[in-house]
Amino acid sequence: MGTGYVGLTTGACFASLGHNVICADIDEQKVESLRRGEIPILEDGLDRLVHESITAERLSFVLGAATAAEQAEFVYLCVPTPQGEDGSADLSYIEAAAAEIGPVLQPDAVVINKSTVPVGSTRVVERALGRSDVHVVSNPEFLREGSAVSDFLKPDRVVIGADSQAAAIRVAGLYVGIPAPIMVTDPASAETIKYAANAFLATKLSFVNAVAAICEAVGADVNDVMLGIGYDKRIGQEFLQPGPGWGGSCFPKDTRALARIAEDAGYDFFFLKGVLDVNEEQFDRVADKIARLAGGSLEGKTVAVWGLTFKARTDDLRESPSLEIIGRLRERGARVIGYDPAVEVAPAGVELAGDAYAACDGADVLAVLTEWDEFKWLDFDKVHEAMASPCILDGRNLLDRSALKRRGFTYDGIGRS
Description:
The active site is at residue 250. NAD(+) binds at residues 25, 30, 81, 116, 145, 253, 318. This protein is an alpha/beta fold. It contains 16 helices and 13 strands. 42% of the residues lie in helices and 13% in strands. It is globular, with a radius of gyration of 23 Å. The mean pLDDT is 95.
């Protein structure tokens, strides 16, 4: 149920494992496009899996949840769970999908929450289904945009939360052939694992950016500092890269949601609130850096921005750090010209350039805010010539600082003196 990032990836990957999969959506135009093999999202390897599975007649697309569910042994709920301003999740889409499929489910069917849902949502789905002869299981996703197919087929772990051991074993059987440990627990623990994992990763990113601020103050290089601590096996190298802040469809939502879940349960998770505050502060710090490179004021200045998506290898703009920073630049009077290899429609407040060089034409500052590899290999002599003032804010520490300085650029990065 649902053909977004999670639903489409889940369906295509299960079909590639040999299962017969029906993906349902409420958007008729989207269903028709998917039937033609047209993939609406940028996700490495997904188009190939979809085409192969359609050709093998293991994957099909239908309009409406009930149509897909009436003969299904397993029904995955992969519908949106948008977040309110207070951090709470809106479960209306999940409840609506469950209410629609409840009357048509086969006895002993298994309904599985794949969407990120608050602790206790299996009970919400059970009530919405109105069926005592079906099972509800939690099977949270741990997919990273840009590598979702690989993450599904080669996961670190598969987590299954169920009250019924028999239902858990049946869901585990869907993953036969996938080389990963399968953890079976209760539904509340499975739901909490998802939130805790994303909140912990967000914590690492905020920690790195906070240390980057210290490095700038004391004259250290955050890249070397993170490399040094990453060799410690207790810490590891992953998620120790400084940047302009973190974003995307999962980390901000899940971190805020866990803080809200804790609050509702009577615990003040002030530590996690600090993680969120540091991220907001990072957006401001990067905007301040750009303003300093522009001479102290952004009023009437032109800022070129390379990278608009929340990270490379995706076309997702949701909660993008780049857009957060652009909003701050515009509030200070800047004109923003952006370029991103995966973005074809200009976000609000951004003039979209046809290529990276065009974005720099007449710019007072160039800000690199998404880590697309292609930005490293551009002709920076050409960039220098195009800009009104050759100043670069490298928000991802992506570029060769020494080479840029030799070309006459004023360079600033994150956590680098």
